Amino acid sequence: MSGAGAPDFFYREAQRLGYVARSAFKLLQMQKQYRLIKPGSSVLDLGCAPGAWLQVACQSLGPLKSGGVAVGIDLKKVKVPPLCDARVQTVCADVMKLPKDKVRALSPQQKGFSVILSDMCPLVSGITTRDAALSIELGMRALDLAVGGAALPNLGDELDGSICDSDNSGVLQAGGHLVIKLLESEDVQEFSRMCKPLFRKASLLRPKATRSSSREIYLICQGLQSNARV
């Protein structure tokens, strides 16, 4: 069980249904509201440990004959969890340092992914401003990975050499969807405004399965504009 507090409804349901974490219900809610992952989708899950989102992603891909893939990347070594089939694989790597060409090589025919999910979160220190800044940094990396640094002129110095690699092309396909977890702060609205011109729609969601003590919120970006993909 992750997080503080006594086992709650979502924790018990996760155990009953075979999900490795209660966070599965966050993605299940997004799926119900936005239908981000369709049969045959190619899904990239950033910060995939312990694998609950990979389980939901695999289920959302439909039957094996529908095709599709789900690739999880995490600093920790993550085993492919139960409820997943051969379309799921995991990679142990640091997303902040992983070149885009190596990420793209993990996608079908190396043509990029149709859905990118970032559940990355910094090690929370308890210092609100510091944690929020680190969260935005992780969000920036996910956005850069998706659309490419050249599509993000508004970032200025925020995408420095430690975040943005020399490959300026994104790995999210035109029309694709991007989900980014952030910690609530005054910067979240600015981050959202920056994303809106790049996508058909961008909205914020606090899933019902989020613990009451948590400050996390998800930015749901739908339909990458073809002119935004570099």
TrEMBL record:
InterPro entries: RNA_methyltr_RlmE, RNA_MeTrfase_FtsJ_dom, rRNA-MeTfrase_E, SAM-dependent_MTases_sf
Limits of the Ribosomal RNA methyltransferase FtsJ domain: 19-223
GO function terms (MF aspect): rRNA (uridine-2'-O-)-methyltransferase activity
Source domain of life: Eukaryota
Endpoints of the signal sequence: none
Residue numbers annotated as active site: K181
Alphabetical keyword list: Methyltransferase, rRNA processing, S-adenosyl-L-methionine, Transferase
A Pfam family per the record: FtsJ
Record family assignment: Belongs to the class I-like SAM-binding methyltransferase superfamily. RNA methyltransferase RlmE family.
HAMAP family registered for this protein in UniProt: RNA_methyltr_E (MF_01547)
Name used for this protein in its record: rRNA methyltransferase 2, mitochondrial
Organism: Morella rubra (Chinese bayberry)
